[in-house]
Write a structure and sequence with these properties.
The complex is a heterodimer of chains A (284) and B (347).
Chain A lengths: L1 H26 L3 H28 L2 E2 L2 E2 H21 L7 H6 L3 H5 L5 H7 L11 H14 L6 H26 L1 H4 L7 H12 L9 H7 L10 H7 L8 H30 L12
Antiparallel strand pairs in A: 1-2
Helix pairs in contact in A: 1-6, 2-3, 3-7, 3-8, 8-10, 8-13, 12-13
Chain B lengths: L13 E16 L7 H6 L2 E16 L3 E5 L6 H8 L7 E6 L8 H5 L2 E5 L11 H11 L4 H15 L14 H13 L5 E5 L7 H18 L2 E5 L3 H7 L2 E6 L2 E7 H7 L3 E8 L10 E7 L2 E7 L5 H11 L2 E8 L2 H21 L2
Parallel strand pairs in B: 3-7, 3-8, 5-6, 6-7
Antiparallel strand pairs in B: 1-2, 1-4, 8-9, 10-12, 10-13, 11-12
Helix pairs in contact in B: 5-6
Chain lengths: 284, 347
């Protein structure tokens, strides 16, 4: 069992290495492209957070969140999104596009489990990393202003929560994206709609939003787990010592549901296959 | 009109075995009438399309099998079934002794697949980078990779464009690179779906020659679909024709011509005058002493036709040709279509 797990990890590392090599080749195909790519992605990710940032600046915070707490949350949200961009590029995250365009066939023709292909094929550590730097920068700057005691334990909890938040977003995209197994044409863009909804709601503190709304944003539309809830726990706004475990647990549940639906969809795909094919967005 | 299938093979030689395979799809039907909108919205009318109707097929190791049929006959469905992309609704599919869907991971490591309208190449990468990616994902040992890369570079002429971005390749170069990708791990069977689609004559000739050599030298089994029958005839010893989900013919190309009439073209040059009337031959063109006929050589002998032509006047020259395979196949499709129409008309 342990040998098998070690084998799987070694295999994943080899696959990530080759994906990183391809990504580096892509980014360095020309100095203008390389620079343009990095600058535009950084500007876009900062622009996405700027609305909340300006609100926090104007009113010296949002609700009972201080300005620096809001900036910490924004950095966290950008970082969680950056992790997904690095790991699941080439529309692996926007799975409904791959399903709707018949591109899953390419993945199924690879002699490895589907989960391993989906985990490693979209690794873009260079072209997908544009969000990581601004995210880390905002997070560190805000943490210093907030005088967070960044012990190794706290940093481990931060990383665990970041991965969990990314897993929640991934699950949400796959949960909705799996609809494309049954309705490839109609649901082709459903992953991007789901992701857009998450990214629009992720930047706001939800305290005082009311039980029903908060409950909804922590269950059916779990945007609260992208940044708000884990930051609340990490910054001690929620005094419960167990609060830091909630996002990882939510991620476990979200992953289980998404994988169950995806596997059901895959069975449907085995039965019906893909009736349409478009190379658009595939390996570009 | 179904020719006997060539199925007498030893089990160890069998690489593809389909037994009673059914594949059924449903298609949503809608009328164009505005008044039907609500009805079809709540109770959609679904049409059952039987793409494959209990087909049996066996392919032996080292064979080159052409798989042909009109649009919508079930060719792509069969290739998907054989390459693990689709499961049958009924019946069994065994390729290389495995269940393609059930044992997908092990199975796809032993096959190569090329879809003419798709590419496995990384679009923004040089061909060499795609080949390196393939080595890692397929876990090909380095010495074997180097050996195969050397072989494929030589026979497919990859050297000319190995460092060119895939997006900048011509169609012919792209197909050569895709073939290299499909063969790098030395598959035992190669599935080719329309491999010559859109290629110019020279590129097509090179690809066909390569596939033939691959089969001859390395005994790779090849299962190829195409609409270009002359390509298939050059490539394959055996043709399987599918029509309305059934295998309508399975045998050598020569037998196909005989089974569906050995149609030939006869050109007669006379000193002038009207074209000679030949019983058993249809006049298709006539101009200044040159007359063109089509006849079925299995029903009327050429000597009989020439004797008849000589009776009407002096024959200066004669030419006879077999109809190109494309025309034979077009006749067959037309006949099938007429058959289907007359069946539809029956109450």
């Amino acid at each position: 069992m342990a040998a098998r797990a070690a084998g799987a990890v070694a295999r994943a590392l080899a696959l990530w290495r080759v994906a990183a090599y391809l990504d580096l080749m892509f980014v360095t195909r020309g100095p203008q492209q390389a620079l343009g790519y990095a600058v535009t992605d950084s500007v876009l990710s900062l622009a996405a957070a700027s609305g909340t940032l300006l609100l926090a600046e104007r009113f010296a915070g949002i609700g009972h969140w201080t300005r620096h707490q809001v900036i910490f949350m924004l950095g966290y949200a950008i970082l969680a999104s950056g992790i997904l961009s690095v790991l699941f590029g080439y529309n692996v995250l926007f799975i409904s596009r791959r399903l709707g365009r018949g591109q899953l066939d390419h993945t199924l023709l690879q002699p490895q489990p589907l989960w391993l292909s989906l985990l490693t094929e979209g690794f873009m550590p260079f072209s997908g990393a544009a969000e990581l730097l601004p995210g880390v920068g905002l997070l560190l700057w805000a943490a210093r202003r907030l005088e967070v005691a960044a012990t190794p334990g706290w940093i481990a909890l931060l990383l665990l929560n970041l991965l969990a938040s990314a897993a929640v977003v991934w699950s949400f995209s796959y949960l909705w994206g799996s609809l494309a197994f049954w309705a490839p044409r109609a649901a082709e863009e459903i992953s991007s709609s789901a992701m857009r909804m998450m990214s629009q709601l992720r930047s706001f503190p939800l305290d005082g939003a009311g039980g029903l709304l908060t409950g909804g944003l922590l269950s059916a539309l779990p945007a609260g787990f992208v940044a708000w809830y884990p930051c609340r726990a990490l910054l001690g706004i929620d005094p419960s010592p167990y609060a830091v475990a909630v996002t990882p647990m939510a991620a476990g549940v979200a992953l289980a549901i998404a994988l169950w639906v995806f596997c059901r969809g895959k069975k449907e795909y085995d039965r019906t296959g893909s009736q349409r094919y478009s190379s658009f967005g595939h390996r570009r | 009109m179904i020719a006997p299938a060539h199925n007498a093979t030893a089990p160890s030689d069998t690489v593809v075995e389909l037994r009673g395979v059914w594949k059924v799809y449903t298609q949503r039907q809608r009328s164009a009438r505005l008044g039907d909108i609500w009805g079809t919205l709540w109770r959609p009318h679904l049409r059952r399309v039987e793409a494959l109707r209990g087909i049996d097929l066996t392919v032996r190791r080292g064979e080159v099998v052409a798989y042909a049929g009109p649009n919508g006959a079930g060719k792509s469905t069969t290739v998907k079934l054989l390459s693990s992309l689709l499961a049958p609704d009924a019946g069994t599919v065994r390729v290389l002794g495995m269940d393609p869907v059930g044992e997908r991971v092990r199975f796809v490591g032993r096959i190569g697949v090329v879809f003419g309208q798709r590419t496995e190449l990384w679009w923004d990468q040089p061909v060499a980078a795609s080949l390196e990616w393939k080595r890692v994902v397929w876990d090909i040992p380095r010495p074997r990779y180097e050996r195969m890369l050397g072989f494929l570079t030589e026979v497919l002429g990859l050297g000319d464009f190995c460092h060119t971005l895939a997006r900048e390749l011509s169609l012919g170069q792209k197909m050569r690179a895709d073939l290299a990708m499909a063969l790098l791990h030395e598959p035992e069977i190669l599935f080719l779906d329309e491999p010559t689609l859109g290629l110019d004559v020279l590129a097509k000739r090179n690809i066909l020659a390569f596939i033939k050599e691959l089969n001859r030298e390395r005994r790779v089994t090849v299962f190829v679909t195409s609409h270009d029958m002359s390509d298939l005839e050059q490539l394959a010893g055996r043709i399987v024709m599918i029509h309305q989900g059934h295998i309508a013919f399975d045998g050598p190309f020569a037998d196909l011509r005989k089974t569906f009439a050995d149609r030939r073209r006869l050109l007669i040059e006379t000193a002038g005058g009207p074209p000679p009337a030949l019983s058993g031959a249809d006049l298709v063109a006539s101009a200044v002493g040159r007359h063109e006929y089509i006849f079925d050589a299995s029903r009327v002998g050429i000597a009989t036709l020439l004797a008849e032509a000589g009776r009407d006047g002096e024959v200066l020259d004669v030419e006879t040709h077999r109809l190109p395979i494309d025309e034979v196949i077009a006749d067959i499709y037309e006949r099938w279509q007429r058959g289907a129409t007359s069946q539809d008309a029956t109450p």
